[in-house]
User: Which sequence fits this backbone?
């Protein structure tokens, strides 16, 4: 049996016709119905002469009385506020009925009670459940035209373990992700409900099975979250044109109550239960808060707890939801009640998108078609108004349809089997690393926190996996498609290829320059030699930095290696730049080497004229020459052309001139030619040559400058891409989780996120038995500065993984675990105990007698008596014990800091001790230099 949205492929769910019972709109976006119920003072509260701290302004508004010197809270306004005298009947009618009966119209519905322990959740949910049963069966009774089928299932989430309340023996149930149905509970029992009495009986069984325990606040405190699911399918009894039936589920959720350790006086098993309860409620609060702030498209951490995973569709999804927030009126609980009201305030902003679920049961459809065939066959046997051929074709058509349906059914079954086997594979794949390395981070965590090669292999896995989350679209200059590490590596490689091409072009340009200078025999020998040297150097450099032609994206090399490689190439790029500088200098020298005709001495002029007489090509070839030089600058020119044109312009080898172009004496020996040239206007020729040469050199100079710019641009783009890779890794489940929008969180949003993350971190420290000194240092160091963001995220991820790991150890069967599963947990607890003993010793060293007395008084530490531990140890044992009470946390941190000797702001610690040498993520717009990136990766 499956738990989740109705067990029907979404493709089969259609919008309802207008004639659905209930008659409401087909889909509706609406806010969650939020009401608040305040129970009467309990006998215990009355006995303690506790005061009523709340005032009911009207049916919708509640505010705190001004009983203490504290600022009063409120007024708070909700869909309804029920005062102390309100009956269950009224709470149901005004706070739940409308939502509950939606299930009869094919709309999923969820009703849950939220509130502090002993605030009346179970009391309220019982009332709602009973009234809902009455309403449902009354509706069934007055709707004879429809046939109703009810199914019942129930589970509890106890210490983050899902248990079937109809079959406890089945142990811990797994939650599976179904792309269409959302979260489903594997192998859960589902009972067909016969009637109202049977339904009450089943609910009774569940209540008896549920984990209940005694705490200081409640004799029968629910220690688990209970989720009852009633699935109702209804269809018209009379066969009509409409084959579809309405299918929806009603979830009745009785949450365990949030509790303060200091008030419930819990320890041992109760304390552990309380921690799990608080943690999952904290996730629920976070989910609600995020949904209420309109972050529907951003990351909502449903997966952080089993409760929110199961309730996902009820929170911002395809369901109508009503929440009854319960609270005690007592002054003692005013702080907790305020928390409840804040939760309720967030919840009333959450919008759901419920729709009518219509299904076509395949069985029914096949049955219908068979009946149709039978009818047609009967008609065929009897005299018919139509020709027998018409009937036959109709029959054929129907049979074909049946066959089609069967094929579709088989295909659906096949797909289901594939999905199941994939899930099974995935489950095994997840289990494997556990067995081999209990202490290593999970693959997913590794993926989030590092660039190890394993990630690449994960990405190649055929198993379904979570998609990389969206990047914050910060680098507008970088292609949008670069949204996965492999894409980015691909981009980087492409840029490198381009860079290589540019290098080659530069080389060709230089070669031409070289040729020209050599063949003209003009300019200084030094310049010619230096260009020749540059040419060979660049060639050499290209050979070294040769990039593999083939971009092999299956390469197992990790991104980290990739970035290290890029980093090492920096020197190559720098030297390319340097060499280009040199080329430019050489060109400048060359320019200098062309003395203007006017400045030439008569000797120079003669020599120049002599040289010009032996030009390898005549001046009529000037156009060609320009082509040679210009071609590399022109983007459209191909290197091939350049080489060819160079060859074309070479002097024919059989001419006498070509015999001795390499030295001046041989040039001078070619007297007939020079004599012949004498007829040319030498002065004019000289001018033209100078002009052409200067133009060539300008052209090369411009080209080199352009090359330099292009190399710089490429390098910049490459670094942007690297940054993107880094940011993506860092953001994968945190910053990018926060928002899809391309905007930075505003300081106000960051403060909210910070508070939220801090609460989660505190809770996780508690659950994972993290060292008190670490907690204190971290708490005092990270106080919400924007630059703390990355530290907070990393700490949260580390702890979330650790908690999950510990939970897995706790839930796994000993056979699977091999070594002592509890050793890790117990050694952490032992270390914590030793730390408390150490802190206790420091109490008398670091605090004056007066300070000690004040603390004992404030922290309710009774005086020492026989058999009681020392007061200082009692004090140490109280520190950091209530993760829900932020005041307690703050004071605990201050005391530990004093005992250990940290300054007010943890001055003995620095953020770097958390080994995160990052720049502030809020400076993300500023350029992250290469060295910083290298540091970041600890390359
Ligand atoms: N509206 C009410 N009127 C009278 N009694 C109430 C009301 N609400 C709760 N109570 C009583 O208060 C006590 C605590 O209620 P309940 O067990 O429902 O609290 P809870 O919130 O479910 O606690 P927990 O989270 O610990 O399970 C019970 O004895 C219950 O009968």
Assistant:
């Amino acid at each position: 049996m499956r738990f989740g949205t109705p067990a029907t492929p979404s493709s089969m769910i259609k919008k309802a016709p207008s004639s659905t019972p209930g008659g409401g709109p087909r889909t509706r976006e609406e806010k969650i119905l939020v009401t608040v119920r305040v129970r009467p003072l309990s006998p215990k509260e009355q006995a303690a002469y506790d005061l009523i701290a709340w005032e009911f302004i009207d049916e919708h508004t509640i505010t705190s009385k001004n009983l203490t010197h504290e600022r009063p809270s409120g007024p708070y306004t909700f869909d309804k506020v029920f005062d102390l005298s309100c009956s269950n009947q009224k709470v149901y009618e005004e706070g739940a009925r409308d939502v509950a009966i939606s299930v009869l119209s094919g709309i999923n519905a969820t009703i849950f009670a939220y509130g502090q322990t002993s605030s009346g959740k179970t009391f309220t949910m019982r009332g709602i459940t009973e009234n809902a049963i009455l309403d449902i069966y009354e509706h069934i009774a007055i709707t004879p035209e429809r046939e109703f089928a009810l199914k019942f299932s129930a589970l509890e989430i106890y210490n983050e373990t899902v248990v079937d309340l109809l079959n406890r023996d089945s142990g811990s149930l797994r939650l599976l992700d179904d792309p269409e149905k959302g979260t489903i509970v594997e192998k859960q029992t589902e009972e067909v409900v016969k009637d109202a009495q049977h339904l009450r009986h089943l609910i009774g069984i569940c209540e008896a099975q549920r984990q209940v325990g005694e705490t200081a606040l409640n004799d029968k405190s629910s220690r688990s979250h209970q989720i009852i699911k009633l699935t109702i399918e209804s269809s018209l009894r009379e066969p009509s044109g409409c084959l579809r039936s309405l299918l929806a589920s009603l979830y009745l959720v009785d949450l365990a109550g949030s509790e303060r350790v200091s008030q419930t006086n819990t320890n041992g098993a109760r304390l552990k239960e309380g921690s799990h309860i608080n943690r999952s409620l904290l996730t629920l609060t976070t989910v609600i808060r995020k949904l209420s702030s309109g972050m529907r498209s951003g990351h909502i951490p449903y997966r952080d707890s089993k409760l929110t995973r199961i309730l996902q569709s009820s929170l911002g999804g395809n369901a109508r939801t009503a929440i009854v927030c319960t609270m005690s009126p007592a002054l003692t609980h005013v702080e907790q009640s305020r928390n409840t009201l804040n939760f309720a305030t967030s919840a009333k902003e959450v919008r759901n998108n419920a729709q009518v679920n219509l299904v076509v049961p395949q069985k029914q459809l096949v049955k219908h078609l068979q009946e149709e065939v039978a009818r047609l066959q009967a008609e065929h046997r009897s005299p018919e108004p139509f020709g027998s051929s018409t009937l036959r074709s109709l029959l054929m058509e129907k049979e074909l349809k049946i066959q089609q349906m069967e094929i579709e059914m088989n295909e659906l079954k096949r797909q289901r089997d594939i999905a199941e086997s994939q899930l099974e594979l995935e489950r095994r794949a997840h289990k494997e690393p556990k067995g081999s390395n209990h202490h290593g981070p999970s693959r997913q965590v590794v993926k989030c926190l590092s660039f190890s090669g394993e990630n690449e292999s994960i990405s190649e896995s055929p198993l379904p996996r979570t998609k990389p989350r969206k990047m914050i679209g910060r680098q507008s200059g970088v292609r949008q498609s670069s949204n996965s590490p492999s894409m980015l590596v691909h981009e980087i490689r492409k840029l490198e290829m381009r860079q290589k091409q540019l290098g080659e072009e530069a080389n060709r340009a230089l070669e031409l320059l070289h040729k020209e200078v050599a063949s003209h025999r003009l300019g200084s020998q030094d310049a010619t030699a230096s260009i020749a040297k540059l040419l060979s150097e660049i060639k050499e450099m290209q050979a070294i930095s040769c990039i593999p032609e083939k971009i092999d994206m299956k390469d197992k090399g990790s991104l980290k290696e990739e970035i290290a490689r890029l980093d090492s190439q920096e020197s190559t790029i720098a030297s390319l730049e340097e060499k280009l500088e040199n080329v430019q200098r050489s060109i400048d020298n060359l320019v200098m080497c062309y003395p203007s005709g006017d400045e030439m001495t008569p000797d120079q002029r003669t020599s120049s004229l002599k040289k010009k007489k032996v030009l390898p090509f005549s001046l009529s070839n000037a156009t060609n020459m320009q082509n040679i030089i210009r071609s590399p600058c022109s983007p459209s020119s191909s290197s091939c052309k350049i080489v060819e044109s160079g060859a074309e312009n070479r002097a024919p080898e059989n001419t006498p001139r070509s015999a001795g172009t390499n030295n001046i004496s041989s040039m001078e020996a070619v007297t007939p030619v020079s004599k012949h040239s004498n007829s040319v206007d030498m002065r004019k020729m000289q001018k033209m040559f100078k002009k052409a040469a200067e133009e060539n050199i300008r052209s090369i100079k411009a080209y080199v400058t352009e090359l330099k710019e292009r190399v710089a641009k490429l390098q910049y783009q490459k670094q942007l891409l690297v940054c993107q890779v880094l940011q993506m890794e860092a953001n994968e489940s945190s910053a990018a989780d926060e928002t899809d929008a391309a905007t930075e969180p505003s300081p106000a949003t960051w403060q909210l996120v910070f508070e939220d993350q801090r609460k989660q971190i505190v809770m996780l420290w508690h659950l994972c038995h993290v060292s008190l000194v670490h907690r204190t240092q971290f708490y005092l160091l990270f106080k919400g500065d924007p630059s703390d963001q990355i530290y907070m995220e990393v700490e949260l991820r580390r702890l979330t993984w650790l908690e999950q790991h510990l939970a897995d150890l706790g839930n796994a069967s000993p056979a699977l675990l091999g070594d002592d599963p509890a050793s890790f947990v117990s050694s952490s607890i032992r270390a914590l105990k030793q730390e408390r003993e150490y802190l206790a010793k420091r109490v008398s060293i670091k605090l004056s007698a007066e300070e000690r007395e004040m603390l004992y008084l404030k922290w309710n530490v009774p005086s020492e008596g026989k058999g009681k531990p020392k007061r200082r140890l009692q004090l140490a044992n109280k520190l950091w014990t209530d993760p829900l009470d932020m005041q307690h946390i703050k004071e605990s941190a201050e005391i530990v800091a004093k005992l250990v000797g940290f300054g007010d702001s943890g001055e003995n610690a620095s953020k770097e001790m958390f080994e995160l040498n990052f720049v502030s993520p809020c400076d993300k717009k500023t350029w992250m230099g290469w060295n910083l990136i290298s540091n970041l990766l600890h390359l």
Remarks:
- The mean pLDDT is 68.
- Residues 737-937 form one domain.
